[in-house]
Structure prediction request, 65 residues.
Amino acid sequence: METKLKMIYWKGEKFWVGKLLEHPEIMTQGGTLEELEDNMKDAYAMMTLEDVPEQHEIKELAINV
Prediction:
């Protein structure tokens, strides 16, 4: 399944930086625009659990903040 999302991006001091408008919590960077796009696709897959296999486990974690 293909999902189309909008990425806002800009040139920082050293890297291209971007985030997804539909998911502003997903943000990444790259040395080139092509690398930024590839990194964004990877970040989206990790953050939306698209790469989790059918056979998986879930564990609750306690985190002190």
User: Anything to note?
Assistant: The longest strand covers residues 7-11.
